[in-house]
Amino acid sequence: MKYVIIGNSTAAVGAVEAIRRNDRNGRIVIIGNEKYHVYSRPLISYLLLGKTDEERMKYRGDDFYSTHQCELKLGRTAQKIDVEQKCVILDNGETESYDRLLLATGSSPVVPPIPGLDKMEKKFTFTTLDDARALEEALFEGARVLILGAGLIGLKCAEGISKKKVEIICVDLSPKVLSSILDDQSSEMVRKHLEDHHIRFYLGRQVTGFEGYTAVLNDGTQIPFDVLVLAVGVRPNISLLRDAGGRTNRGILIDDHCRTSIPDIYAAGDCCESLDVSSGETKIMALLPNAYMQGECAGMNMSGVDYVFDKAIPMNAIGLFGKHIITAGTYKGDTYFESDGEHFKKLFYSDNKLNGFILIGNIEKAGIYTALIREKTPLDTIDFELICQTPGLMAFSRETRAEKLGGVVNVSVSSPIGISCAE
User: What domain count does the chain have?
Assistant: First the structure.
């Protein structure tokens, strides 16, 4: 059996590790358009901040490819899938045949069609290691950095360059920061925290054009700057499957086995749409834990084991200037809310289940809330009042505690053993 994986990514790692559980002898070929060992993309802001280095950014150790017997074709771009011949055509004209193919192609930054943008040299996106390197090289003491986008990417970029002695200005069409993951109350709390760290915001406004290195906003405001960062969003890389005749929407459409509509072609990660079990909607969830688990699901099925991943939920964990934020699920239903100005907790629930949560500051027991959402745990089977105030396994029934503790009940429980908090 020959497995070809397009994308040297988190999803690819999940697939490789799953394949090797079941098939020690099949060939695995990884095609990646970057030249680097697989690394954790969310860490590029910490690289600029000086909190990590390129060695510690690696998502797996140096021996990952050799241990798992992977053949690498890095610095190469897959341009076309020939479904009839079951092969992938690369940018250098080479072809790579496959028995099973995984698309782990990720997403690409959106570059908005703003007048004057094409004439600018010092403009950067912020999703790859090369992006971070290029941006760092362009910065200088006293530089005015304009970031378009006050979402996850834009704000992590702001934190990453915050110690470079630069001025940071952030513009976003939304009237609030992190609008994709926070509600009004939590967003306001985070905005004030960011302003305390000298980030200047123009919210509810957009850039209508550039006159040299001056941004003109829709209300007439003019913002001079030296360096521009585009962080307005990402777009799933779906063209390979779409051009091959596969079913796509905004993302590649997959089932709960991570199969696409074309036989022997699978997809996983940021390029896909999948079912959000917290809302019942199919959507793009560009999240590292989901990417790994989808890759794992694809790898299991590619190597002949029937395997389902049907517990995907929107989930984000981010730290900004020492303030930790974890969110998950969907924000609908009744709410439990508490905040003391430094810490923030809001839980959303209805129909006897937890739908979602927002935690800021104290995030220690987020894994318990995440597990409740994923498993759709009936709230009348737990002490939900206790879970709201002081999450811990003691809020669960004796039988559930026994299951999560591997059959051991008579122990002192101070942490959610058996529930992943790393997510």
Answer: 3
